[in-house]
Amino acid sequence: MIISMASPASSMVLALLLAAFGCIAVIVEARAFFIFGDSLVDSGNNNYLETTARADSPPYGIDYPTGTPTGRFSNGLNIPDLIGKQIGLSESPLPYLSPDFNGKKLLVGANFASAGVGILNDTGVQFVNILRMYRQLELFQEYKRRLSASVGSKQAGRLVSQALVLITVGGNDFVNNYYLVPFSVRSRQYSLPDYVKFLISEYQKLLMKLYKLGARRVLVTGTGPLGCVPAELAMRGNNGGCSQELQRAASLYNPQLVEMINGLNAEIGRDVFISANTQRMHNDFVSDPQAFGFTTSDTACCGQGPYNGLGLCTQLSNLCPNRDLYAFWDPFHPSEKANRLIVEQIMTGSNQYMHPMNLSTIMAFDSRI
To answer: InterPro entries, per this entry (predicted)?
Structure first.
């Protein structure tokens, strides 16, 4: 009755208020998703950079819904795509550098990841123009300012604090830095155990920066079995076996990462950071591919040379006809099917895979807050 008696002007004000509150309701109900890191989670930022670390040409994306390259280092969907579906997003967060990233897209979250980066600024120097981790965090601050301008600082802060964050970085600090060339600068500067300690200390600074920027649920993945990817089998493997030196690096790094995360949570007083044991997740299908429906875990679907592990995946590469039979899509990156297996463990895995809890438990817990 009151509404029907309102003047046109007051009705317009009411409509604007309802629209505003409707927008706020969407922000409160939706869980945004932010992604930081390297090529394992890059969804196309490098497409907009002058760099050789790109996946913007066929056959990348051959199994993506559009059948075209998107900048994902995958034959299809990558880990952020699959996690996004699990947490109820109707679309994946866009690369932050995408010209389409504006308006309502800001409410979904954003992907800041960039292929080739590491924890350290000098990792991936051969790729030249990539979004190093400090730059990804700067862009996150820029994103927050844009969001605040759109919906107000209070609602922007709420969206960020309630969001899920994924960070995947560290592997390149070994393969594209310490072990990139014999007698690299970092390998002459540090023994491997000391280098791992240095990486962990620098990673801790990045995670605390994320926390200070408002992140309150952060999935932190370890490295996979670095010495067992097709590229390392081809370049450093021993009679078909994994590179022992890179495997040693992963075995030193991953437990210390978990220990550091536990320390941060204890310091903060809550489980902000969740560690994902991606080394174990990968090892499951690397050690017994047939148990997961793969015919091979040592040869890439797309590549050339031994194990299809040399060079880039291009239109001139060998290409397998059935990607679901291969654990690795290209010399370094899992296939979409392997990514699905990894995300299954992230969602429902035991404490051997996810510590202190898996993502399904996090979602159930957070829904009660």
So the answer is: GDSL, GDSL_Est/Lipase, SGNH_hydro_sf, SGNH_plant_lipase-like
